[in-house]
Design brief:
rod-shaped, 2 domains, alpha/beta, single chain, 50% helix, disordered C terminus, six-stranded mixed sheet
């Protein structure tokens, strides 16, 4: 676990500091996500994946990770828009909540700006076992569509903007309407955003049972092969004993049952070998296909083990 976190941190630093890759986007920090039951090691892995995803997305020149990435929990467990707006000064804040399910964190999060406005919430997965940055990058691509060049949110679903001093107030009616020049461009931008974001909204990954069934079925196949080998060894010893008795002219009518047992053992060992081979092949295919499939559940995911 420490090695993987070090690799993630190094990859994020290289992507963020390289002049050829990082184009100086709007700084993004993370307000501690509310994920009950998350251990310290799992939380470090979660933020390591988010940092690597932000650093990778910085190549587009729109967003980039801020240092320090994870802010202190100064706004409490249920942060108010005014507090997040204060923390977002000079950039943006990624804030939200999550749920831990068998090593998979389902996250609902949005970007907040310094005026207290936020983007729509996106739902994505961070798989702490099978990790892949692409789903989280796709979620960031959706959010980038709602960030203006000045670093403020240009689309606000629910949260009302707050004054810079921190008190909530209603937005003026004119502020909600786009300028005349943007009226014709907005539908085109929305359509483009929908086309870009649509593939990332619900990638269907392998069901969770496949990651359990693959290793289990492979183990059953190995046990069947071991059983076939044991029966084959016993059968060989019995056949050798009969051959020796035949060579010494010591066979009797009582040995007929031994020949029947040899035939039975031959059939049993062959069946065990065949069943074991099929089980191992099937289990290996399920296992590999589950590991290789991008994403996970029917939502956007982030994962990949280093």
């Amino acid at each position: 676990m420490p090695v993987r976190r070090a690799v993630l941190a190094l990859a994020g630093a290289v992507l963020a500091l390289s002049p050829a890759l990082a184009l100086g986007g709007i700084p993004v920090a993370i307000y501690p996500l509310r994920v009950p039951g998350l251990s310290a090691a799992q939380r470090a892995d979660l933020y390591g994946m988010l940092e690597a995803g932000l650093a990778s997305a910085s190549r587009r020149g729109i967003l980039s990770p801020r240092a320090p990435l994870v802010l202190p929990e100064t706004c409490g467990n249920a942060p108010a828009p005014a507090c997040l707006a204060e923390a977002a000064k000079g950039g943006l804040i990624l804030a939200g909540r999550g749920e831990l399910r068998s090593g998979v964190v389902l996250v609902n999060a949005a970007l907040w700006d310094s005026s207290g406005s936020r983007t729509r919430q996106v739902r994505f997965i961070v798989d702490l076992v099978i990790q892949n940055l692409r789903p989280f990058r796709d979620s960031l691509l959706e959010l980038e569509m709602e960030i203006g060049p000045d670093g403020h949110v240009v689309r606000d679903d629910r949260a009302p903007p707050v004054a810079q001093g921190g008190s909530a107030q209603k937005a003026p009616a004119l502020a909600a309407a786009p300028p005349p020049a943007a009226v014709t461009a907005a539908p085109q931008k929305t359509a483009a955003a929908a086309r870009l974001a649509e593939p990332a909204r619900a990638p269907r990954g392998p069901p969770l049972w496949r990651r359990t069934a693959g290793p289990w079925l492979t183990g059953v196949g190995a046990a069947l092969l071991a059983g076939g080998a044991t029966v084959a060894v016993l059968n060989r010893d019995l056949a050798n004993d009969l051959d020796a008795r035949y060579a010494n002219h010591q066979l009797s009518a009582a040995d007929r049952s031994s020949y029947d047992r040899v035939r039975t053992y031959n059939l049993l060992s062959t069946s065990l070998f065949a069943a074991g081979g099929v089980a191992i092949a099937t289990g290996t295919w399920i296992w590999i296909s589950a590991l290789a499939a991008p994403g996970a559940l029917a939502v956007v995911g982030a994962g990949g083990r280093f």
